[in-house]
Amino acid sequence: MKKALLIAGIILAVLAPAPAQDMKEQQEQQKAMEAYMKAAAVTENHRFLAKYAGDWDVDVTYWTAPGAPPTKSAAAFKGASRLGGRYVMMDFSGFMMGQPFEGIWLVGFDNLEQKYNTLWIDNTSTSFFITKGTREGNVISESGSWPDPVSGRTLQVKARTTWVSNDEFRYEQFMVLADGSEHKGMEFSSKRRK
Predict the structure, then answer these.
(1) Residue 139, pLDDT above cutoff 50
(2) pLDDT tens digits, residue range 56-105?
(3) What is the DSSP string of 52-120?
(4) Do 57 and 19 sit in the same domain of this protein?
(5) pTM
(6) 142 shares a domain with 109
(7) Digit-coded pLDDT (tens) for 6-37
């Protein structure tokens, strides 16, 4: 009888979840939930992006090559906060080289990387253009690489967004040439439509 009770006790101990094991699993689940909540949190960096929301008049200047004369055109952005303030999406419409030019500019801040991420897509390409970077004060500086359909190479790029005020920002894009020098290829000067 004692042996049977001992065996039953052992079986129950093995089959029944131990309180310590349950507690450890709950703590691990709690830590995982806290990590996910921290990764998804809307922070001051996301609130900074809210400035992009609204309607913008844009003066576009671009240079086809170093030393080439600039080409200018007018365009517009329409920005909106998305996904609970974690991202801002801007629809761009204008003209480039006499042709209609449309694009989507998606900007967010990655809490895990601690970097701003920018995705650009437009009707002149089927490629995704991605840059990442940091912000100091009112300036976001980013870098990345983009495919070049002319050379077949991947080009290194840098971008800088400078907030002049809450109603004006300037986006500048630079191509990094083979010799390491930078060529300013594009500038968007944007003013909030009132």
Answers:
(1) yes
(2) 999 999 998 888 899 999 999 999 999 999 999 999 999 887 889 999 99
(3) G-EEEEEEEEE-SSTTPPPEEEEEEEEEEEEGGGTEEEEEEEEEETTEEEEEEEEEEEETTTTEEEEEE
(4) no
(5) 0.81
(6) yes
(7) 454 555 455 555 566 788 888 888 887 888 88
Tokens of 123: 């009707």
83 and 123 within one domain: yes
Same domain (yes/no): 82, 33: no
Q: Do 47 and 166 contact (CB within 8 A), yes or no?
A: no
Range(s) of the domain holding residue 12: 2-40
Residues 89 and 106: beta-carbon distance below 8 Å:
yes
Q: What's the structural domain count of the chain?
A: 2
Residue type, 61: T
